[in-house]
Design a protein that fits this description.
about 350 residues, seven-stranded mixed beta sheet, three-stranded antiparallel beta sheet, about 35% helix, globular, binds 4'-deoxy-4'-aminopyridoxal-5'-phosphate
């Protein structure tokens, strides 16, 4: 690959920050211990590093460290949240509420549950991809056990009204899960103020390594129960068996440290760049329009543009010096127009001509 290719696909994944790599390196060789080896210093050292990361990640979302369960990424965290809660609360009911623009790692577990006798309500979204909190309230029934609504969309950057939805879920005694893989580091996440019960995060969207994420599981007010989906060891408070990815976890903690340090500065800078790029393209090219919310209301660093009269795949092929995508990387081999764009009312033709920068 030519090195001159300009990378415009940070919504798919980010490069690992050099400081993150440096922090991870010793945990591959010198400090290679298994964090579960509690009988010698190699294990203690690894465990200490894991616990330090757990504290850093917890503090990002105002949680307690014991509420953080490490996973292999947000896909696994979403699966664990949905299957884990569905099984734990099956005796209370089998109704789950989600919405039309969720990531496949939320949709597919819901579809699998449907085959096992659960009922899934998929709420519609408005023209910019937002869910109406009142629609969530109206959809909650006696047998509703879980509401799963993402914090921010990975294709069109829509930020959902988490606090409103969280508060109404709590008032009705329903568990609230949010997939915050894209949102972390870009918008405020506060499990207490926003009444979040389960939160999925991923390291590789915020300059951390791939293959590591977490599920936050609320322990108090209320204590949320999820049943483990991975069995075979007592790691992670019995919620997720398996030897921990110590270097990855250390890297995740360091990435959080960096974004916390940069805080609003990075967010404002990203938003400024996003606005500049959007203006430059849409003012110059009348055939291009923005899908989703206006830049000042969407996730900083996300643009989704419809290019009238063109197939996005053809555009991708003709612009080899730029790395961008037509939507979610996880679905990029799928030839169907994006379900997210279809959900906000974009026609199939426009959806096929849309790109994400
Ligand atoms: N949810 C959203 C909203 C995402 O954007 C992604 C990453 N494409 C995931 C979940 C999956 O995360 P991971 O790659 O860590 O499995």
């Amino acid at each position: 690959m030519k090195t001159a290719v300009i990378y415009l696909d940070n919504n798919a994944t980010t490069a690992v920050d050099p400081a993150v790599i440096e922090r991870m390196l010793p945990y591959f060789n010198e400090k290679f211990g298994n964090a579960a080896s509690s009988v010698h210093p190699y294990g203690w050292q690894a465990n200490e590093a894991v616990e330090e990361s757990r504290r850093l990640i917890a503090s990002l979302i105002q949680a307690q460290p014991q509420e953080i369960v490490f996973t292999s990424g947000a896909t696994e965290a979403n699966n664990l949240a949905i299957f884990g809660a569905a099984q734990a609360y099956a005796k209370h009911g089998k109704h789950i509420i989600t919405q039309a623009t969720e990531h496949k790692s939320v949709f597919d577990p819901c579809q699998a549950l449907k085959k096992r006798g659960y009922e899934i309500t998929i709420l519609p979204v408005d023209r910019v991809g937002r869910v109406e909190p009142q629609a969530v309230a109206d959809a909650i029934r006696e047998d509703t056990i879980l509401v799963s609504i993402m914090a921010a969309n990975n294709e069109i950057g829509t930020i959902q009204p988490l606090a409103e939805i969280g508060s109404l879920c709590h008032n009705r005694g329903v568990i609230f899960h949010t997939d915050a893989a894209q949102a972390a580091g870009h918008i405020i996440l506060d499990v207490n103020n926003q009444n979040l019960d389960l939160v999925s995060l991923s390291a590789h969207k915020i300059y951390g390594p791939k293959g590591v994420g977490v599920l936050y599981i609320r322990r108090r007010n209320p204590r949320v129960i999820i049943l483990p989906q991975m069995l075979g060891g007592s790691q992670e408070y019995g919620k997720r068996a398996g030897t921990l990815n110590v270097p990855g976890i250390v890297g995740f903690g360091e990435a959080i440290k960096i974004i916390t340090r940069n805080g609003l500065k990075e967010v404002n800078y990203l938003r400024e760049l996003t606005q500049k790029l959007c203006n430059a393209i849409t003012e110059e090219l009348s055939e291009v329009s923005l899908n989703g919310p206006p830049v000042n209301e969407r996730l900083p660093g996300n643009l989704n543009l419809a290019v009238n009269g063109i197939e996005a795949d053809a555009l991708l092929l003709s612009m080899r010096d730029f790395a961008f995508s037509t939507g979610a990387a996880c679905s990029s081999k799928n030839l169907e127009p994006s379900h997210v764009l279809r959900a906000i009312g974009v026609s199939p033709e426009h959806a096929r001509g849309s790109i994400r920068l």
